[in-house]
Amino acid sequence: MISIENEYVKAVFSAKGAELQNFKSKETDTEYLWNGNPQFWGKFSPVLFPIVGGLKDNTYLVNGQKYNLPRHGFARDREFKANQTSATEITFTLTHDEDTLKVYPFKFALALHYKIEGKSLSCTYHVTNTDDQNTLLFSVGGHPAFATPTGHELTYDDYFLVFNKDTELVYHKIHSDLISDETDTIELDKNVLRLNHKLFYEDALVFKTLKSNRITLRNRRNPRGLHFDFDGFPFFGIWAAKDADFVCLEPWCGIADGTDHDQNLETKEGIVSLQTGENWERSWSVSCF
């Protein structure tokens, strides 16, 4: 485990998956990240690459050739190389190898740069096409799970999300891990979505038209909470495991296959195309209060 910190907060990571596993306020001794209890969901903040969500039959096509990838890809299960450049910054890097090329026929470099400033932690995804001939096709996304601790008169229903630019949420329903064209709408009360476990009984809420670039997690019993900021992510997911005390805020550049998708990676909704030698990046951040 590797950590970065300043006088206000501390973040702890695993080189496996470049996964953030703790984000704690040193002032209040408050842990803001889910504890990874495997009874509900044994992860903390997995990295989604080179796909986001599921593929139809876990299969995709490149130039007529079939390849298989599990839901959310392979990066979350791979060992990254860590380079800590200061007490408050660290970069994790993953590159293609013989194993990745068997399931994903592209040469790439994926780096995650984490940085602490004040009471905020930022995560920046850097992707580079290192192939001298082929266009890189990929998706990338975040999946951080934030704690909603209960007890001491707090219940899960006491927590709520505040959207800075949305008054209603139109979400796409999921069928067998695939995105359908069927939608439903949640009307917000003054930009507020109150959490309850039943919200996620049918899987994640998946948004293609979210206007907000800041979501705030708060509760009705104490002043503690967090701001989650993100820009340039065309898709967003909100999810929790059944009856678990957390909520995932998931900014995505990419999305699961549609139920009628032809499985060609090049035409997959949300896929990013990167030419030889080009670089791409997106960032999100979380600030505690």
Give the structure's gist in a few sentences:
This protein is mainly β and 289 residues long. It has one helix spanning 98-103; strands at 2-5, 9-14, 19-25, 30-31, 59-62, 65-68, 81-86, 89-95, 108-117, 120-129, 136-138, 140-141, 145-147, 159-163, 168-175, 178-187, 192-194, 205-207, 214-219, 226-231, 235-239, 246-253, 272-274, 279-288. A hairpin with a 4-residue loop joins strand 3 (19-25) and strand 4 (30-31).
Structure description:
By secondary structure, this protein is an all-beta fold. It has a single domain (2-288), classed as Beta-galactosidase, Chain A, domain 5. It is 2% helix and 47% strand. The protein has 1 helix and 24 strands. The protein has one helix at 98-103; strands at residues 2-5, 9-14, 19-25, 30-31, 59-62, 65-68, 81-86, 89-95, 108-117, 120-129, 136-138, 140-141, 145-147, 159-163, 168-175, 178-187, 192-194, 205-207, 214-219, 226-231, 235-239, 246-253, 272-274, 279-288. Strands 7-8-9-10-24-20-19-14-17 form a 9-stranded antiparallel beta sheet, with no helix packed on it. Strands 12, 13, 18, 21 and 22 form a 5-stranded antiparallel beta sheet that branches. The chain has a 4-stranded antiparallel beta sheet with strand order 1-2-3-4, with no helix packed on it. A hairpin with a 4-residue loop joins strand 3 (19-25) and strand 4 (30-31).
List the helices and strands and how they pair.
Elements: E1 2-5, E2 9-14, E3 19-25, E4 30-31, E5 59-62, E6 65-68, E7 81-86, E8 89-95, H1 98-103, E9 108-117, E10 120-129, E11 136-138, E12 140-141, E13 145-147, E14 159-163, E15 168-175, E16 178-187, E17 192-194, E18 205-207, E19 214-219, E20 226-231, E21 235-239, E22 246-253, E23 272-274, E24 279-288
